[in-house]
Amino acid sequence: MRTLKITLAYDGSDFHGWQVQPERPTVQGTLAAAIERVTGCQVLPQGSGRTDAGVHALAQVASCQIDAGIPTENLARALNHVLPPAIRVLSVEAAAPEFHARRSARAKTYRYRIYRGEICSPFLGRYVCHHPFPLNESAMGEAADVIIGEHDFTSFAAVDPERGREEQEASNVRTIYSSEWRREGDESTFTVRGSGFLHHMVRNLVGTLLLVGKGTLDGDGLKRILEARDRSAAGPTAPACGLYLVSVEY
Fold first, then answer.
1. Of 73, 107, 70, whose CA–CA distance to 93 is shortest?
2. Phi, psi for residue 232 in degrees, rounded to 5
3. Residue of 52, 145, 160, 186 marked active site
4. Nearest to 83 by CA among 6, 182, 173
5. Is 196 exposed, middle or buried (0-12, 13-18, 19+ CB in 10 A)?
6. Beta-bridge mates of residue 113
7. CATH 3.30.70.660 occupies which residues in the chain?
């Protein structure tokens, strides 16, 4: 048996998220089918995290164990030959037997893209959140610093029906190493790196930071939302289309 570390990128627009679901196209299910077709092994590759429907990935990581003769160095090309164009395997590496894409992860980086121009191209619309209205982006940048450090992010966590009871009751404390709001041309981006992220956490943070940009909330208000540990205290969930899993660190 070989343990594989598979790094892949995907356009999440037409998938119902990462996790396999009956009768629905998912990234995990599509990758599993491709692995079986190439190697003959029936496996369910485990991802570093479950991206939601419509969320994209620049470098998601998955792991699985196979018992097949095909050389590891040939697997990326073989998988890309049978995968749909919306999913590309960037690399396949042999990993230590104990490696697990989720449990072995030490940090992740996500990026959220907001297009600020008046008209969003139809060729861009599936990959950004379009917000052409006025925003105080300087205030949003200052507020983004509030979440840096170790905090309980219950106020920014959606209930995940796919998590077991034990997972639901686990600690919602996470450490954010960096949090930055940046404007480049017609696009604003929020990039956040942390030890881990809760269900919808980044999208809920973006939705709340947008309230700061609109002037209905300030940095002190964001601190109070963190301390409240109450999802109803925070802003709305930003659309999935603007979110990208950028990288996973081990």
1. 73
2. -70, -15
3. 52
4. 6
5. middle
6. 189
7. 107-249
Tokens of 82: 């049978």
Closest CA to 185 of 241, 126, 128: 128
Residue 96 to residue 5: CA distance in whole angstroms? 9
Q: What is the pTM of this model?
A: 0.94
Q: Is 198 helix (H, G, I), strand (E, B) or coil?
A: coil
- CB within 8 Å of 91: residues ≥ 6 apart: 6, 7, 76
Residue of 25, 41, 30 lying closest to 89 (CA atoms): 30
Q: For this structure, is 52 an active site residue?
A: yes
Within the chain, all domains assigned CATH 3.30.70.580 are found at 2-95
Q: Model confidence over 61-105: pLDDT tens digits?
A: 999 999 988 999 999 999 999 999 999 999 999 999 999 999 999
- CATH no. for 2-95: 3.30.70.580
Q: In which element (H, E) is residue 75 found?
A: helix 72-82
- The closest alpha carbon to 146, from 111, 188, 192, belongs to 192
C-alpha span between 220 and 100 (Å, rounded)? 39
What class, spelled out in words, does domain 107-249 have in CATH?
alpha beta
Tell me: the pLDDT tens digits for 97-144? Answer: 999 999 999 999 999 999 999 999 999 999 999 999 999 999 999 999
Q: Which of 206, 199, 137 is nearest to 174 (CA)?
A: 199
